[in-house]
UniProtKB/TrEMBL annotation, chains A, B:
Source species taxonomy: Bacteria, Bacillati, Actinomycetota, Actinomycetes, Mycobacteriales
Keywords: DNA-binding, Transcription, Transcription regulation
Organism field: Rhodococcus daqingensis
DNA-binding region: 37-56
InterPro entries found in the cross-reference section: Homeodomain-like_sf, HTH-type_TetR-like_transc_reg, HTH_TetR, Tet_transcr_reg_TetR-rel_C_sf, TetR_C
Domain HTH tetR-type stretches: 14-74
Protein name according to UniProt: TetR/AcrR family transcriptional regulator
Pfam families: TetR_C_11 (PF16859), TetR_N (PF00440)
Amino acid sequence: MTTKPKVVPARRSERARSAILAATAELVFEVPYGRLSIEAIAARAGVGKQTIYRWWPTKGALLFDALLELSGGPDGVALPDTGDLRADLGQFLRATVAEMAEPRFDAFLRALMIEIQSDADLAEVYRDRLLAPQREAIRERLRVAALSGGIRADADLEVAVDLLVGPVQTRWALGLGGLNEGYADSLLDLVLAAVRPH
Amino acid sequence: MTTKPKVVPARRSERARSAILAATAELVFEVPYGRLSIEAIAARAGVGKQTIYRWWPTKGALLFDALLELSGGPDGVALPDTGDLRADLGQFLRATVAEMAEPRFDAFLRALMIEIQSDADLAEVYRDRLLAPQREAIRERLRVAALSGGIRADADLEVAVDLLVGPVQTRWALGLGGLNEGYADSLLDLVLAAVRPH
């Protein structure tokens, strides 16, 4: 007979959930994603496979929640607004480049790239919960700049967001290399030239 | 006893190779890539699994050769040079957008995106044999424009190539939508503003 204190079920659930997300984060980094199994995650987390399937229907859904946990969720995506557009966008681009060079983040994003190519539902969740807030934060910073005349009033801000994020995303996804602070600064030079008043 | 004519072995090999590449092209479009097996390709092509493995070490390597076959190989990637930079780049961007909207091409490229996220060797072959010639063709067209003063002499052409291909690639890879001729033209407006002389 043991004398373990009673564990409130909700608290036990929360503990299991945290253990599963932590195990996922570890294993995404350790195991090629194609060979990463729910069984392995369950074993590492010390839970049964069914516990995982009760909360996450697919490996991709679990991956996404683990990424949200890792990235601190969709909050805090606002861009700085010091009044200096070049400084603010430069800080954003250098941070993006640094993040993508971080091996754990890289492993996560590559796994997510694999999943969203074949899982349209997950792709939609990713767009709605992570990409859309990020893109809106950039667009909002550009909108403020347009109001004060730092950007042409007729510049297409949706395409301007693409100019800021697309080149870095593409170099990373296709493994083209060269993603460093110098690249971030060269990219910023061209993007600012594209949107500034004639 | 049959009276079949003798088939020259080299010709039989070539026929098997074509059948395998054609079967791959069909099945990539019909079956989610994660569930597409070499067995299924062998069955469709009417060859043994070992025949496929003799020529292609992995599903990814086979996928890449089937894509090369589909896209007509790395030849013909030169950009038009009519002397009108806007017209030439516009034609390239509209063709790119149209290609990515083509369901068969889309299925192939998504399968390749999946493979290159986890197979560094295949990613390198893809970069060397398809991406590098494409990027060089764009860079060359920009270089010619820079010589005649249509582009600032100090513009970073490597980053300018990224501005042209990155936004489209990213919208496609992340499923952000909106890839049509109007988008191609808006993107071109901003990219030309980025690189033209002050």
